[in-house]
Amino acid sequence: MTQLSEALRVEGYDSRPHFRHPFGRSTLHPGVTFVEQDTAEHILSCEGVIVACPQGFRDDRPDFGVPWPEYRTRPSGEDIAHALRKLEPRSVATAETWEQPPGTTNVNVNVET
Questions:
Q1: Given CA atoms 29, 31, 51, 65 in this order, what sign does their dihedral have?
Q2: Which of 86, 40, 89, 36 is nearest to 66 (CA)?
Q3: CA–CA separation, 8 vs 1, rounded Å?
Q4: Half-sphere exposure of residue 28: CA atoms within 13 angstroms, side-chain side
Q5: d(C-alpha 89, C-alpha 95), whole Å
Q6: What distance separates the 2 farthest-apart alpha carbons in the chain?
Q7: pLDDT tens for each residue of 97-111
Q8: pLDDT averaged over the chain?
Q9: How far is 112 from 80, CA to CA, in rounded Å?
Q10: Which whole number is the average pLDDT over 91-95?
């Protein structure tokens, strides 16, 4: 058994580990942290990557992420929810956008796995 497979077994990831996002070091063993693929934790981690990535940032997939110029100046809950629904089909994303106080845009995004 390799050191990595032993570390994964200790953390309880027997079948399909995936690097955790945000990427981090493990406190249980020398190495990095993992999540089990296709779990709620993994899906939410993927959602976080989508929201943090501006569209056009990835050369290999320019449609990945959220519309960044619009997101920075005035976030749109529907744009964010649309990107999450399009890029992560294992969950259901909904959002609402409102202004309060005037001139301040608030967005609430709900993700169900």
A1: negative
A2: 86
A3: 11
A4: 12
A5: 16
A6: 60
A7: 998 888 888 999 999
A8: 83
A9: 14
A10: 95
Q: Name the helix (H) or strand (E) containing 19.
A: strand 17-19
Helices (H), the chain: 3-11, 40-52, 68-73, 77-87
Q: Is 25 helix (H, G, I), strand (E, B) or coil?
A: strand
State how far the alpha carbon of 104 is from the alpha carbons of 39, 40, 53, 69, in Å. 35, 32, 22, 17
Residue among 44, 47, 21 nearest 34 (CA): 21
14-51 as b/e: b if 16+ CB within 10 A:
eeebbeebeeeeeeeeeeebbbbeeeeebbebbbeebe
Are 109 and 84 in contact, with CB atoms under 8 Å apart? yes
Give the distance, in angstroms, between the CA of residue 94 and the centroid of all CA atoms in the same chain: 15
Q: Partners of 34 in the beta sheet?
A: 19
Q: Whose structure tokens read 């089909």? A: 89
Q: What's the predicted TM-score (pTM) here?
A: 0.74
